[in-house]
Design a protein that fits this description.
CATH class of the largest domain: Alpha Beta
Largest sheet: 5 strands, mixed
Helix content: 25-40%
Distance between the termini: 54 Å
Strand content: 5-15%
CATH topology of the largest domain: Creatine Amidinohydrolase
Radius of gyration: 26 Å
Bound molecules: glycine, manganese (II) ion
Number of domains: 2
Number of strands: 17
Number of helices: 16
Length: 498
């Protein structure tokens, strides 16, 4: 943080009328009962050594710094809820709001491999002023922070006080190279930069840091069995959220002009109840709003006779998120025109899923498979300037007017997971067991698009599912969330007739 932002943040102290005398501190520090027992070892702890070893092998002899990050300022001394950088979470196993300001350090061992230590600000004793007067760390303000022992028990990782970080990072610099994960914690990046300059090892540092980010992303391309379980839970919680939405749809239609907010709110309430919250901002797009790809304003009406496109995902306490889209008829029944468009998108999704399970399939083949189905339908509807084949050629691509986004992305701790991976490891890569990705074709027929047959104008459809590539094929992890036309209609009727 800059000096000015630090100063602005601390201006809130001008309002403080806290007493600071010794008698008061002694009074506050006395007569507290015993603390509850600390945490148990978490299930993810058993999976961390393999993740650490995989990273260690990529950077022999180098010191690696992976900060959790700090809470971001919302305004003045009000922060957004803290959420750690996903690379930190992956390597530490810490989710929820744990642990702002923490830093994971991989320190090279002379005999090879790395020692891994988690540096953070543990709770202080109740006899300190921090206990009641420090709004950032104090127990009166943020609850009892974990001790060094607590976090060690929870994760199995060695822990140390953040005050010892500078010394740990400085040791033998020059002989040892130092890399830091960028875009996570500006203060730690600045510290690393200062230490590198002092040791004369700053040349090419940016590229080295970028390489660390890239490798941390690529190590998440294949999920371990614990991660797959978390993804199953996230999708199950998201399913519950869609059920809450359907239950609230009748009220949404009676709440003009902001029925979309009713839908957004229903999903958000469930996401906070079951998980850490939303994996990303919910898109609740009714009628023609579905044709605005990132419609997150969600302040429109939900009208009987329209479709509503909802793209939403629950992020669990572990920070793994689902990413599901369903397009639902607001009154429970698709019209003929809606059904016709919907079925084409569903056919495209099914075709991509088929390819996802084939031996030798590459990530980019999913998109091509879906585009072939969509282009053929657009040709049949007379919407293309030539044939589907001509459109699918690189010199054509006319079908993309109605499907401008990608068909798939990796999914996990981030909704667009592993985004820092190289192209050859992502779109050009072969699908491998353990990869989890979306399939999400759509057709977007804007109300003012004169190239669209009149009966389709204002209809926007996307269907998005979360897929696990397995040894022998592909599993649609979200298969229990209805998506066939008839299944959606009976799902909605079932909830309304309960
Ligand atoms: N919800 C963002 C996406 O589908 O990629
Ligand atoms: Mn998606
Ligand atoms: Mn989505």
């Amino acid at each position: 943080m800059t000096k000015a932002s630090d100063e602005l943040k601390s201006r809130g102290d001008n309002r403080s009328q806290q007493p600071h005398n010794d008698a008061f501190r002694a009074f506050m520090g006395s007569d507290w009962g015993p603390r509850p027992a600390g945490p148990q070892r978490s299930a993810v702890a058993d999976f961390l050594p393999a993740r650490h070893e995989a990273l260690s092998k990529l950077f022999p002899g180098e010191r690696l710094v992976i900060p959790a990050g700090e809470p971001r300022v919302r305004n003045n001394d009000n922060d957004y809820r803290f959420r750690a950088h996903s690379a930190f979470s992956h390597m530490s196993g810490l989710g929820e709001e744990k642990e702002p300001g923490a830093v994971l350090v991989f320190n090279p061992k002379p005999e090879g491999g790395h020692d891994v230590t988690l540096y953070f600000f543990p709770r202080s004793s109740r006899s300190s002023e921090e206990f009641y007067a420090d709004a950032k760390h104090g127990e009166f303000w943020v609850g009892a922070r974990p001790s060094l022992e607590d976090v060690h028990t929870l994760t199995g990782i060695k822990t140390d006080h953040i005050d010892n970080l500078r010394d740990a990072l400085s040791k033998d610099l020059g002989q040892v190279q130092l890399r830091v994960l960028p875009q996570s914690d500006a203060e730690i990046e600045a510290l690393v930069s200062e230490l590198r300059q002092a040791a004369g090892i700053d040349d090419g540092a940016e590229a080295r840091d970028l390489k660390l980010a890239e490798k941390l992303a690529e190590l998440r391309l294949r999920k371990d069995s614990w991660e797959v379980q978390e993804m199953r839970k996230a999708i199950r919680a998201t399913y519950d959220g869609f059920e809450q939405i359907i239950a609230e749809l009748p009220r949404a239609t009676q709440a003009p002009p902001r029925g979309e907010r009713v839908v957004e709110g229903a999903f958000a309430a469930n996401a906070r109840e079951q998980g850490n919250g939303l994996g990303y901002e919910t898109i609740a797009a009714s009628g023609n709003h579905a044709n605005t790809l990132h419609w997150m304003t969600n302040d429109g009406p939900v009208k009987d006779g329209d479709l509503i496109l909802v793209d939403a995902g629950v992020e669990l306490d572990s920070l793994y998120t689902a990413d599901i889209t369903r397009t639902l008829p607001v009154n429970g029944k698709f019209t003929d025109a809606q059904r016709e468009v919907y079925q084409v998108v569903l056919d495209a999704a099914n075709r991509a899923l088929e390819v996802a399970g084939q031996a030798g399939a590459r990530f980019r083949d999913l998109h091509s498979a879906a585009m072939e189905v969509l282009a053929k339908a657009l040709e049949n509807w007379g919407m293309l300037p030539g044939t589907a084949e001509e459109s699918l050629a690189p010199t054509g691509q006319f079908h993309r007017r109605w499907m401008p986004h990608g068909t798939s992305h990796h999914l996990g701790l981030d909704v667009h997971d592993c985004a820092a991976a190289r192209r050859e490891m992502y779109v050009d890569a072969f699908l491998e067991p353990g990869m989890i990705f979306t399939i999400e074709p759509g057709l977007y027929f804007r109300a003012d698009d004169l190239k669209v047959p009149e009966r389709f104008r204002g209809i926007g459809v996307r269907i998005e599912d979360d897929i696990l590539r397995t040894q022998n094929g592909a599993e649609r992890l979200s298969e229990f969330i209805p998506r066939e036309v008839d299944d959606i209609e009976s799902w909605m009727a079932g909830i309304w007739n309960k």
